Amino acid sequence: xxxxxxxxxxxxxxxxxxxxxxxxxxxxxxxxxxxxxxxxxxxxxxxxxxxxxxxxxxxxxxxxxxxxxxxxxxxxxxxxxxxxxxxxxxxxxxxxxxxxxxxxxxxxxxxxxxxxxxxxxxxxxxxxxxxxxxxxxxxxxxxxxxxxxxxxxxxxxxxxxxxxxxxxxxxxxxxxxxxxxxxxxxxxxxxxxxxxxxxxxxxxxxxxxxxxxxxxxxxxxxxxxxxxxxxxxxxxxxxxxxxxxxxxxxxxxxx
Amino acid sequence: xxxxxxxxxxxxxxxxxxxxxxxxxxxxxxxxxxxxxxxxxxxxxxxxxxxxxxxxxxxxxxxxxxxxxxxxxxxxxxxxxxxxxxxxxxxxxxxxxxxxxxxxxxxxxxxxxxxxxxxxxxxxxxxxxxxxxxxxxxxxxxxxxxxxxxxxxxxxxxxxxxxxxxxxxxxxxxxxxxxxxxxxxxxxxxxxxxxxxxxxxxxxxxxxxxxxxxxxxxxxxxxxxxxxxxxxxxxxxxxxxxxxxxxxxxxxxxxxxxxxxxxxxxxxxxxxxxxxxxxxxxxxxxxxxxxxxxxxxxxxxxxxxxxxxxxxxxxxxxxxxxxxxxxxxxxxxxxxxxxxxxxxxxxxxxxxxxxxxxxxxxxxxxxxxxxxxxxxxxxxxxxxxxxxxxxxxxxxxxxxxxxxxxxxxxxxxxxxxxxxxxxxxxxxxxxxxxxxxxxxxxxxxxxxxxxxxxxxxxxxxxxxxxxxxxxxxxxxxxxxx
Lengths: 255, 481
Fold this sequence. Notes:
The complex is a heterodimer.
Chain A: E1 2-11, E2 14-24, E3 29-33, H1 40-48, E4 53-62, E5 65-66, H2 72-78, E6 80-83, E7 90-94, H3 95-109, H4 117-131, E8 141-142, H5 148-162, E9 166-170, H6 178-191, E10 197-201, H7 205-210, E11 215-220, E12 223-228, H8 230-239, H9 242-251
Parallel strand pairs in A: 3-10, 3-11, 6-9, 9-10
Antiparallel strand pairs in A: 1-2, 1-4, 4-5, 7-8, 11-12
Helix pairs in contact in A: 2-3, 4-5, 5-6
Chain B: H1 2-12, E1 26-28, H2 35-44, H3 49-64, E2 87-89, H4 103-111, E3 125-131, E4 134-138, H5 141-146, E5 150-153, H6 154-160, H7 162-168, H8 179-187, E6 192-196, E7 205-211, E8 222-227, E9 232-240, E10 247-250, E11 253-258, E12 263-270, E13 282-293, E14 299-306, E15 311-314, E16 317-320, E17 326-335, E18 340-349, E19 355-364, E20 369-378, E21 386-395, E22 401-410, E23 416-425, H9 428-435, H10 441-457, H11 462-475
Parallel strand pairs in B: 3-7, 6-8, 7-9, 8-11, 9-12, 10-13, 11-13, 12-14, 13-15, 13-16, 14-17, 15-18, 16-18, 17-19, 18-20, 19-21, 20-22, 21-23
Antiparallel strand pairs in B: 1-2, 3-4, 5-6
């Protein structure tokens, strides 16, 4: 589904990603962990097409197409979804109208007619139930005055509505209390299928107890330095990242 | 940034949708302004002597008054002698029915989306159509007449209801108010007149559509609306003009009078030709609009969506004379390309317990400059006066500007005056967020801008709110920032 090869990216000339290789297949959940500043969120931004990031080398294939060649909205319409680390507020734009526009834009891209109001509302209701999402938030302006947790939950709710092929969750667990974390994780687990895939960026092993990953990768200094199964997350929780940094320092030539 | 720039470019290159010119035989006065011009206009309109005298007085004041110098833009030189002050479609000065109206004129309004044949009209909206100096048609007149409501062209009101016109003309905006008001009172051509009798709630929206067509002319219309005790009226004006390289002057005067317990809601969707992307051509929109809440518990509410004109310069205000009266001002002003807007309101609290509310939303894109200028004045007898002002500016791109000049003068220590102001930029983050949900830049900006302006757009009558939303989208097409 996603094939990242030797991906290098920079922000204002500073190299941030320095040769990422990652393959994600349908049905898989990949967790990406790593210390602050290692490039986790940058990877998410590059994949979603944020303009301030310049790809300097490498390729990304998404469902057989060149992802890097697409505008951010086309990536979204092709089925790539990013749950933001900091979802923004857009005053005066109602959550429900925004979602309807998004759903219909994606449908139009795939040659489908706009959804009828009734069908849309039915879908909204069933997803609200599935994700245990507060219906009152639907009629408010997009994220305006939402608590940090509500914003994160709104993002995950959007994910349920847009049914992406690949969802990247950028520290969705940060700012969630333990109950919200449980609800959000349960929601994500319900969305998991053999046809879609998730990349979960997190600092904490705790989230991975709820959403059990197939693979865990450690990102450090713009590179994936270690990959393993869910046990790797436990090991990181226990030992921190320093032992990995030590290993890397030994491997890397002195600059 | 590059996508933003692209869209900005696109916006700049957008064409004005209503820029066509109607080919029709016109009766046009020779350019120039003197007493003879005024006598000519007055004679053309077969006016009574008192009105001619009033016009001449206005002209004298015009000659004495000087141009203001406090505005936040470079006042262009206006050659008052180079303008023609009267232009009317030939043949008829007065139409008895639509059948007499030149079909070319009807087609013009049809093209502008203002069908004048009643069966084709939006139900519930009566329209007075003003083409250059003349009112072409007023619809639904008979129906309104049954309720005692007068809705007609200003010229007709002078003929049919001279006592009403004489009683109220110039009582809210004195001829000496400012030089453009004086000019208007000397040369005003037509406009709309509304009278709502006691206890009547006007059952439909009243609307005037102004069209400047002829070259080298100015438009100087006057609108006078009187809402008698316990009455209600909602009035809307719209306007467009052809695209021309030279600037054209629009200097209107609007006076509103609300008696005891009366309410007037006045909405403007202003879309005069704004000039091209380099700032060539466009309308100078120098307008004086004021209402007076004469009676107790009366209310006047101005809503304006200003997207057109090269320069917009106006401050629709309310004199809150009656106790417990309420004045409101809701504004969205958009300046794109090289447009300039210096607009806001004046709320003058005279009566006790008077309230005013000001919501101003400025949007600047391209090289546009947007100024909010507002005066809240509380007189010594205005016990418990309240004002709330919120004045927001939204910037799109990095070559535009937003300015705010709020003035507060209070002579009563029980008054409460609140002012809030924000300036924000359409964030790349906001646009990217919407992009990431499958929404392209263009639509993303639309959503953000309309969300920003929502509080004001919500004040417009339903049909017009949709129009105004579209207009905002069109004006800002491609101006992501």
